[in-house]
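Quick entry between incubations.
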Amino acid sequence: MSWGLSRVTVRFGDATALAGVSIDVEPGEVAIVVGADGAGKTTLCRTLVGLEGIDGGEIRRPDRTGFQPETSGVWNDLTVMENLEFVAGAYGLATDPARRRIETLLEVTGLGGARDRLGRQLSGGMRQKLGVAMAVLSDPELLVLDEPTTGLDPVSRLELWSFISLTAGEGKAILVTTTYTDEARRGNSVLALDGGRSLASGSVAEVIDAMPGALFESARSHGPSSWRRGRTWRIWSPEAEPVPGATEVSPDLADVVTVAALAAEARR
Amino acid sequence: MLAMTLKEFRQVVRDHRTLAMLIVMPVVLLLVFGYAASFDVDVIPTAVVGPGATNVPEQLPELFDVETADADATRANAEEMLRAGEVNLAVVTGDGPPVVLLDGSELFMARAAVQILAAAPIPGLDYVVLFNPELDTSAVLVPGLAGLIIVFVGTLVTSMSVVRERETGTLEQLAVMPFRPRDVFMGKIAPYFLIASIDIVIVLTIGTLLFDVPLNGSVLPLIVGALAFLFVALGVGVLISSVSENQAQAIQLALMTALPQIMLSGIIFPLSSMAPAVRWIGYLLPLTYFNQVAKGVMLRGAGLGDLLMPLALLVALGAVIFTLAVTRFRSQLRPARVRAAT
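Done. Structure below.
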């Protein structure tokens, strides 16, 4: 059975944080939610784990859901070991199996050498890995990780993704939010959010293939449908008409998300 | 400097709750404390016992408010009424001249009575100060001060417990864990409860040894009272923490609940001397009842039966605080259950 949201709407007063958003998270797979700051990623996570009420739609959530909040959810004044032991105790895990599971997680995350270090003494990468380990410890069917890689150095990001992939391999359904579009390739499916609305969803290939119009590259800007990408400019042509002085290029996910945002803006 | 000042002003103005406290609370506190700050004794609850119980009341000073006049009661009955705190002065009549028994644990009433008796002596009338014969101030203050110290230490410390979780983002972790709201509440206060229990033992022991405060009664009612009082004091801190947006607000709120307990719990100013509305605030404060229990046990040697009312009220306050905190936690930890989907 897949977990997730179906046409879920969440409002805070007059503001709509999520507008009819749907996402499926299959067991053994990683679903990525990508979007800029304020896109609604955290609200989506909080809604999925039951921390926000909904104004419409449906939530499919198992009894046991692991959650790592944006702040990593690590208790600063507990050691790595104490953080994990607390989670094990909270879920009523039996002592011996819990100890074995903790040791496995410490080994997999590379936190074994820091087991007696306080949460506040950990580096950003170690904190996030501990946060994910805490979320995984109770053996949840669904794991929700809110921006676990934000602010991490490239090596830490790689290590964390390796751990996430390993966890998905155990059959867990995992939802990960990120602001980095390059990370979307690590998931089985992707949902692009903007202003609480779904811009595009599906596998990365499907999302890229579904991009309307054509994409061109140029040395200079071409108005509101163009944006800087590295040292050159990308130009979106909604009707796929050639752009003078520009070369057609194949879009990647970052391009498609930007195009989707432009298209949504044009519709509004 | 102008930029810095402007930034600070903006931050202060944006924190509406703190701003309201800064502006409104001084006025409220001045009014409440102003009506509370009185050492004047207007009335002394009095019992008259013995064969002359019906004749003597008319001869007594106006300050002595005779609540009970029992011709069949004895001096032992009078002492029992004083020990239970039912009255603060008893006149024992009999074959000889009447004897006035004064409750020395109610310092200001006892002193007022002594002054009146000295100023306008009634022929043949003698008086005896019970429980605190020297009318020693520290003996009366120390039991209540022990509670006051616990209020400051316990309530302040626990007032930061939940708000700190919220600020560091770990409250969300607790929310998705299979905890019941009461588990979180009890778990929060448990370590502080143990530490504060040790604190109260230390403070009362030092008070007894250093300030010669007697321990005339059984420790059982004192233990029961102290445990109930600690539960309330720490629970108030956790409740404050659950309604505060940040640690600064929590500390301010905790101080706002601690300050009235100094002035309105009867430790410094007698409750009977306060304006009725202010006195009723005092009746809502846990320290009022802990003070009654501690003074009752330590000075008057009161037993469990004598202190049932303050003990029951402490337990009732504990139940109210527990219910409020758990209700608050329920909405914080399980908001999705509160806000129904349509």
